[in-house]
């Protein structure tokens, strides 16, 4: 199931069974005092593995940590230009098509308009030139509602719960402090958004839980698996 762990024979067998490739993507980005910098890609990776498990097939790439701006000025965040990311993903899609992908799932665990619009655009451009490849490019919360809410935030109730469920050893609720992002770096020279002005932290220790994360993961991966089945049926 994990690309990097497969032998060539296993790889060919997996593609013959189901020509689906998962690209879990995120960013190295500040996620409060209680969560690690690589949360977005790690979360996306676990959701891809769980979805592949439900499908009974598919090959999951290692997490990709490079993406478009998010909390660019906060501690530890690394961001990349659209030109750089465009090349990376266009060539990756090209390479995955070469090895046999019919459906590519680009699941972004990092959100914000710059990232989400980017993944959709790069997928659309590729599909226009390569009609035999279907790319499902989306943040994990897309199309999902849980208890009347979209399960999406930044290190808030949903993201903390999801991550806590998948990575309890990397989640440090005792270090949680409610504050706006601590600005560590000057404004970047080009595109980013002013993250702190929109910041609103929830009452996290009261609302986040591993149990909620488990439930959200089930609903998200059920929904994603269904999208992939529909795409596969049209291949
Ligand atoms: Zn995040």
From TrEMBL:
Cofactor annotation: Zn(2+)
Pfam family, one: Creatininase
Protein's UniProt name: Creatininase
Source superkingdom: Bacteria
UniProt keyword terms in alphabetical order: Hydrolase, Metal-binding, Zinc
Family statement drawn from the similarity comment of this UniProt entry: Belongs to the creatininase superfamily.
Zinc as UniProt keyword: yes
GO biological process terms, semicolon-separated: riboflavin biosynthetic process
Record bears the keyword rRNA-binding: no
GO function terms (MF aspect): hydrolase activity, acting on carbon-nitrogen (but not peptide) bonds, in linear amides; metal ion binding
């Amino acid at each position: 199931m994990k690309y990097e762990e497969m032998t060539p024979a296993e790889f060919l067998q997996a593609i013959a069974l189901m020509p689906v490739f998962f690209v879990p993507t995120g960013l190295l980005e500040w996620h409060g005092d209680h969560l690690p910098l690589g949360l977005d890609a790690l979360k996306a990776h676990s959701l891809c593995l769980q979805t592949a498990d439900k499908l009974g097939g598919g090959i999951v790439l290692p997490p990709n940590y490079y993406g478009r701006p998010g909390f660019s000025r906060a501690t530890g965040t690394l961001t990349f230009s659209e030109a750089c990311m465009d090349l990376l993903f266009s060539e990756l899609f090209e390479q995955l098509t070469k090895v046999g992908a019919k459906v590519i799932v680009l699941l972004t665990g990092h959100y914000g308009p710059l990232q989400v619009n980017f993944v959709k655009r790069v997928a659309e451009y590729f599909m226009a030139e390569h009609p035999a490849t279907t790319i499902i490019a989306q943040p994990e919360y897309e199309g999902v509602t849980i208890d009347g809410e979209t399960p999406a935030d930044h290190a808030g109730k949903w993201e903390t719960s999801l991550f806590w469920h998948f990575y309890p050893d990397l989640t440090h609720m005792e270090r949680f402090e409610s504050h706006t992002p601590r600005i560590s770096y000057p404004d970047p020279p080009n595109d980013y958004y002013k993250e702190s002005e929109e910041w609103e932290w929830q009452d996290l220790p009261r609302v986040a839980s591993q149990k909620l994360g488990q439930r959200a993961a089930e609903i998200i991966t059920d929904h994603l698996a269904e999208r992939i089945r529909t795409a596969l049926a049209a291949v």
